[in-house]
Amino acid sequence: MEWEAVIGLELHAQLATNTKIFSAASTAYGAEANTQACAVDLGMPGVLPVLNEKAVRYAVRLGLALDAQVAGRSVFARKNYFYPDLPKGYQISQYEIPVVGPGHLDIDLDDGSRKRIGVTRAHLEEDAGKSLHDGFGTMSGIDLNRAGTPLLEIVSEPDLRSAREAVAYMKKMHSLVRYLGICDGNMQEGSFRCDANVSVRPVGQSEFGTRSELKNLNSFRFVERAINFEIERQIELIEEGGAVIQETRLFDPDRGETRSMRGKEAANDYRYFPDPDLLPLEITPALIDQVREELPELPDARRGRFVTDYGLPDYDAGVVTASREMADYFEAVVSGCGDAKLAANWVMGELAGALNRAGLDIADSPVSAETLAGLLRRISDETISGKIAKEVFEAIWAGEGDADAIIEARGLKQVTDSSAIEAMVDEVIAANPEQLEQYRAGKTKLMGFFVGQVMKASAGKANPQQVNQILKQRLDG
Length: 477
Description:
Blueprint: E1 3-14, H1 39-42, H2 53-65, E2 73-74, E3 77-80, E4 90-93, E5 103-108, E6 114-126, E7 130-132, E8 141-143, E9 150-156, H3 163-180, E10 192-202, E11 212-217, H4 220-239, E12 247-252, E13 257-263, E14 273-274, E15 281-282, H5 285-294, H6 299-310, H7 314-320, H8 324-337, H9 340-358, H10 369-380, H11 386-397, H12 403-410, H13 418-431, H14 433-440, H15 447-457, H16 464-476
Parallel strand pairs: 11-12
Antiparallel strand pairs: 1-9, 1-10, 2-15, 3-4, 3-14, 5-6, 6-9, 7-8, 10-11, 12-13
Helix pairs in contact: 2-5, 3-4, 6-7, 7-9, 8-9, 8-10, 10-11, 13-15, 13-16, 15-16
């Protein structure tokens, strides 16, 4: 039997506010445990929550970017459950009327096509604390610093059919929230997390199978591995005569498998009811218009502009607009060198490779956009060749100065004097009579051998185009 996966994602984006969603406590990462949880976060008697306006504006910003419905009126509810890291015994969230209603996000598939993924809703809620299990022996510790941290839970439709599609959607949403400036997207710090709902069904069947929820996946790689394992586990279980049960599962990255955590709760298990301490949230058309005017250029629009204005291939445009920081960097390089394709090649190639090896984000690049543009200008005006430029780039990365200073200090200027190149060509041909005879007998692939010898004789400084042109004249003469 042929099977089909049905996948929906719940993405939790921590909103980039300085204070919590219902209190003035700090959201700064890395503070000593339990130093950033105030009486409101703990639900102490006599305190009242006050909604953070910036969190609301951030939610509206995402709603507009997803071409979604933004509710004029939404309601906060209490989601009741009992965990040691939930001091109030309930979480303030939104249930029946979320702030953001149906929208969509388009993703790129491996075959070059695009697919529209429905977004069911995005709702505001507060985060819980964190249970700590290492260093406490047989006990667990509780850190309530995260309690009350503002989250936007973004729920997709079950439109995803593979782990690759799920990762593509997650990456696209990750890029979008960073473009919008509403979330820093730092997955290691828990700022962007994923719960994946996975089920399988026979191909052609319209009814959904029983789903498992894979909880708290905090990397793109883990999402792909966990979903792939879960799909295989469910298919194998059903084909052996078993049945999938609705449950919450955790992914063990060391063993590459999911394991049961607990039975999956249904909505009625949480006993949702409107929070009596919070009035309904009303968002006026004027506020929505104001937020719309503040929106930056969105990734898809910027990608299209790079294709139209800069003449980039669609693939290149997609890569350099993957993050707002990279797109800004690229445009600054183009402004400084005037050659968009050359800039894209270097940003995607040498720069991206160096950043990956150093584990750096482009925002922390030791090579500024202005400095890279200076290097590319020297390629364009033929001061240096592309090969020598890589040597210069490494020196720039190492902090030896800008391109002009390094070229001068190392004597790397390209040889463009035709007479000098002609002399080197003649010497190489004279030193290799056997290869010359073979070339003229029809082994024209030896052209590469002669080019290599001339470039070696010039220490890589000879202009490659001139070398090829002069060699061709000499060898065919």
